[in-house]
Write a structure and sequence with these properties.
By secondary structure, the protein is of the alpha/beta class. The chain has 5 helices and 6 strands. It is globular.
Length: 171
C-alpha cells in the first residue's frame, strides 16, 4: 500500500482547488480576539498592510508566496497573517461605494491571488477602528471565512509580535 504524506495530501488539495472551508461564505467576518491567537508553528509572521497602493499590495502577495515556498507551503511549518487597517482594508471590500476609495480601480485578480494564499491558511485581520472612523458598513466586506475583524489593527500587530510573530511591511 502506498504511503501518502500529509504534505503531499495538502499539496494535492491545494492544486485541485479544494480548501478547508476557506471559501465558505459567511454573513460578515467573525470577530477575533487577538489575545486568543496562538503561535502554533515554529515560524509565524504578520504582514502589516496600512497602504492602498495596488502595486504595493501585489508585491506583498508575491512576498507572502515566496515566504510560503521556503516552507513548502506547509501550514504546519509556517503561519502568515495580514493585518490590515487604514487604506489597506479596501482590498478586502466587495463594494467601495461610499468610501474614500470609491473612485479607485482594483484589479479583481489581486483578491483572487490572496484567496489562493488562503489555501495555506493565510488569514487577514481587519481593523474595526478603521471601519468606525471611515464610516464603512462592515457588510461591504467580502464574505470569506479567512477574513476576521479585530478591534484595532495596530494593537493586533503589537499583540502578535509579543507572541513571537515576526513583523514585515512591504514598501
Amino acid at each position: 500500500m502506498a504511503m501518502t504524506s500529509r504534505r503531499k495530501f495538502l499539496g494535492a488539495l491545494a492544486l485541485s482547488g479544494a480548501t478547508f472551508g476557506a471559501s465558505r461564505a459567511i454573513a460578515i467576518p467573525a470577530k477575533l480576539d487577538p489575545a486568543s491567537v496562538k503561535k502554533d508553528t515554529d515560524v509565524a509572521c504578520l504582514y502589516h498592510c496600512d497602504f492602498g497602493d495596488p502595486a504595493r499590495f501585489s508585491q506583498m502577495l508575491t512576498n507572502i508566496s515566496n515566504h510560503l515556498s521556503v516552507y513548502e507551503f506547509d501550514p504546519m511549518r509556517i503561519k502568515i497573517v495580514v493585518v490590515a487597517h487604514g487604506a489597506g482594508i479596501k482590498f478586502f471590500l466587495d463594494d467601495l461605494s461610499g468610501t474614500s476609495w470609491e473612485n479607485d480601480k482594483i484589479d479583481p485578480d489581486i483578491y483572487k491571488r490572496f484567496v489562493g494564499l488562503t489555501k495555506f491558511e493565510v488569514e487577514a485581520y481587519l481593523c474595526q477602528i478603521t471601519y468606525t472612523r471611515q464610516k464603512i458598513d462592515p457588510a461591504k466586506t467580502r464574505k470569506d471565512a479567512f477574513l476576521k475583524f479585530v478591534p484595532s489593527g495596530v494593537a493586533t500587530a503589537a499583540e502578535l509580535q509579543s507572541k513571537g510573530f515576526a513583523y514585515l511591511k512591504v514598501g
